[in-house]
Structure formats: structure tokens, C-alpha cells
Amino acid sequence: VSYTAEWAGRVHESQGEPMRDAEGTVTGVIGVAMDVTERRGLERELEQRRLRDQQEREIRFDTIVRSMDEGVLVVKPDGSIHFANEAAGRLLDQPVEVLLGKPAAQVRGEEEWRRFLTPLLEGAKVTRREELALHTTARLLHLRAQAETVSLPNGDPAGFVCVLTDVTDFHDMSRLKNDMIGFVSHELRRPLSALKGYALTLLQQGVEKVGPETVNEFLREINNEADRLNQLTAQFLDVAKIEAGLAIELSPQSFDVHALVRQVAATQETASGRCAIEVQCAEGVHELRADRDKLLLVLSNLLSNADKYSPQGGTVQVRVTPNHAGVGFAVADQGLGIPQEQLRYLFSAFHRVRDASREGISGTGLGLYLCRHLVEAHGGTMEVESTLGQGSTFSFTIPASAGVEARV
Ligand code: ADP
């Protein structure tokens, strides 16, 4: 028999054993009583310290997990989300309260998300590591997802833990680097080899043999190609400036808007000859003060896109209309159109829509990015409306006093 008793502020632990004779009859009791107050105090203190340590560990874990940039998800064996930190909510584009309790496979609509989770949800012991592209309301995110199933000490499955790391910047940087290399080698090569071709012919055959008319034609082409190189490098420098966070310098001047639009349209028609370009200039807008060269670049980029993403023989319209904010420009085509979900990324550097209908159409994905920045440098805005398979309209407004206010 043992018992513990507390009296007079002290704790006593007593134990007793019956004493028996040879027949087994109880003849007495041997008892030991101990004052265990100090030991109990120590034990209580140890228990409290253990609880405090555990609480501290939990708080520390909680603080670390909550403040992490990585998203953490703990998923139960039935596939429902048991825990999600703030970052997981941000990366999966859903508030944490919405994530909790929801089936993990249903928090994203993307097929690759479900494919990533399937082996983990099947319960077998697995480790998964994959890069996923998820569309959020803000932008396209590239996530490195790592997940591992966990088991209870008896070996039963206990669900899995998934860590999501946002690698979008890294992804964009490496794409930017590759795209830049591609841009330089592809876009600069064409005019350079044309220049080389004309120069070599003249050198090898001699000016007399080629004849003055052909020499003149060659010189005109050399001049055009040099202009194209100039435009490309200027575009490239503008992109580098924008990427470095520097302002685009504007050189405003007053010019005739209609003349500019007609010039761009005629140049485009001559250069490509694929589509007919209709120019509609409303009465009442003639003079604009802005950076003429930059505006020319914007219009020729939009017209060149409208032309190259339209079927041969299509019609492209350029409309110039005064509006309350200044002068409105619109370039409309009846071409391939753009998928709705791509519209929000259209003005990002190097973003290209890739689908079967666009195979073989070359480009850098820089045109619209530059256009938007050039328009914004003037204090204007740029918009796009498009229906896949039916056509697109790119419109922008240049404030009437753009040239004065936007001077850097
Ligand atoms: P690029 O034409 O060099 O690829 P842009 O920045 O000018 O780059 O355009 C980005 C993407 O938007 C293109 O890859 C193209 O798929 C799409 N796009 C641009 N303009 C049009 C248009 N008028 N019609 C259909 N798609 C377009």
C-alpha cells in the first residue's frame, strides 16, 4: 500500500507492507514514511519548465513558419489542409482561412498542381520536388514545390508537408538572360548579314561592274538596314533603362499627328504588304506636342504586330480621335486575337503568347512592353481588348500637354 498525503505544507509519501508468519497470517505492518516535499517541488518545477519550453518552442516554430517567405502546408491523410502559413495563402492566391480544411487538390485549378499532389495523396511514402507555374490575380508565379509524406511512429500514414518557394524572379532572370541572348543573336543578325551581303557584293564585283542604279539601290538598303539596327539598339537600350528603373528621356516637339500616322502606315504597308492599312483621323486633331520618334516607335510596333498576327490580306485600322484627356490612338485588327488569361501579362518584358497559330512568327516579346512604357512616359495609358480568333484592338491616349510635362 502506498499513499501520498499533504499536511502542514509538507508532502509525505508512505508505503506499507504486511508482515506474515509461516501460515500467511498478517502479524504486523512495516511502514516507511518519507518527507518528499523537496522532490515534489523539484518535479513540479521540472514539469513547468518542460511545459514552458514546449510553449516557447511552439511560439518560436509558429513565428518562424508565419514569417517565412516559403509557403508551408500540412495536409492530413484524408487530403484536407490542416495547416497553412500566410505565405502559402499568398502563393496559392487564397486567404489562409479559406485554405484550412479544404481538400489540397482543390485549392488550385491547374492540372500540374493536381499531378504534383496525386502520389502524395495516395499515401505511399514519397518525396516530390517540382517546379509549378500558377496564375495568380497579380501575375504568373513559378513555384518550387517540395513535399514529403510523414508517418506516425507505428508506420501509419500521417499525411504530408509541402513547402512552396517563389522562384519567379530567378525564373524571369534566367529567361531574361536567355531571351536577351536570343534577341541579340536573332534580331541583330538579320540586318547585319544584309549589310554584309551588300558590302561584299560591291567589294567583290566593284562599283563599275555593279552599275550606278544597283549601287544606289544597295546604298538605300544599307541605309534602311542601318536604321533598323539603330532602332533595335535604341529599343534595347530603352528596355535596359526601364529594367534599371531609369526614366525614359523624351524630346518633345510639335508635329502633325495625321502626317505621322500616315507615314507609319505607309512604311508598314510597303515593308510587309500582307495587310491593307486604313487610316481614320477625326477632324480637330492635328498638332500634338510629344516625342515624335517615340510615338512613331509605338505606332509602328502596334501596326507591325497587327500585321504579323493577322492572316494575309486582312485589314488593319488606325484611328486617331480627340478625347477628354488628349489624343486617342487605336490600332484594330481582325487577326489571331489573344487568349483572355494572357492579356494581363501582355505588357511584360519578353512575354510572348505561344500557341500553334503563332508558330513561325518571330518576335522578341519586347514590343508591347516598350510601347506601354513609352506611352506612360508621356503620362498616357495603354489598353488592349481582344477576342481569340477574332482580332485585337490596342488603344492608348497621349495627353495634350504630354511633351511639356513628361520632359525628363
Ligand atoms: P513580339 O511580337 O515580338 O512577340 P510583343 O511584345 O509585340 O512581342 O507582343 C507580345 C505577344 O502578344 C506576341 O507574342 C503576340 O503573341 C501577342 N500579340 C501582340 N499583338 C498582337 C495582335 N495584334 N494580335 C494577336 N496577338 C498579338
Strand content: 25-35%
Q: Report the end-to-end length measured between terminal Cα atoms.
A: 95 Å
The biggest sheet, with number of strands, parallel, antiparallel or mixed sense and barrel status, is: 5 strands, antiparallel
Quantity of strands, as a count: 15
Element string (H = helix, E = strand): EEEHEEHHHEEEHHHHEHEEHEEHEEH
- Please state the average pLDDT score: 88
List keywords for this structure.
single chain, 408 residues, alpha+beta, five-stranded mixed beta sheet, binds adenosine-5'-diphosphate
Characterise this structure.
- The chain contains twelve helices and 15 strands.
- It is α+β, with helices and mostly antiparallel strands.
- A five-stranded antiparallel beta sheet has the order 5-4-8-7-6, with helices on both faces. The protein has a five-stranded mixed beta sheet with strand order 10-12-13-15-14, with helices on one face.
- A hairpin with a 2-residue loop joins strand 12 (315-323) and strand 13.
- Helix 6 (189-205) runs antiparallel to helix 8 (212-243).
- The chain starts with a strand and ends with a helix.
- The protein binds adenosine-5'-diphosphate.
- The site of adenosine-5'-diphosphate has 21 residues, from helix 10 and helix 11.
